[in-house]
Amino acid sequence: MTKKLYAVTIRGGHSATGVDYHESFVVAESPNEAYGLVRDFLEERNICFIDERELDSITLLAEASRYPRCKKLLFGVEEI
C-alpha cells in the first residue's frame, strides 16, 4: 500500500513551553494507522489526559505515488 503523510490533530496537547502534541505529522498507509500511531505514543508515555488524546482531525498532505490523488508528492519512503 502507498505511504502517505498525514497531519493528525488531537483535541488537547497544547504546550507553551514544551513539545506541542496538538498536531503531529505521521507517515502511514491509512488515516486510521496514522491516528493509532499518535494515540499509542501518547498512551504509552501517559501524555495528555484521555479526553485530550481524542482525534480532532486528520489531513492528507502528500502521497508516495506517481499520481497522488491529493496532488502532492511524498519523497523518501520507497514508492514513486
What this model shows, in words?
The protein is α+β, with helices and mostly antiparallel strands and 80 residues long. It has a single domain (4-63), classed as Ubiquitin-like (UB roll). Helices cover 18% and strands 28% of the residues. It contains 1 helix and 3 strands, in the order ββαβ. The chain has one helix at residues 31-44, and strands at 4-10, 23-28, 55-63. It has a 3-stranded antiparallel sheet, covered by helices on one side. The chain is elongated and about 40 Å long. The relative contact order is 0.29. The model has no long low-confidence stretch (mean pLDDT 94).
Number of domains: 1
Name the overall outline. elongated
- The average pLDDT is 94
Query: Beta fraction of the residues?
Result: 25-35%
Please list the strands of the largest sheet in the order they lie side by side. 2-1-3
Percent helix? 10-25%
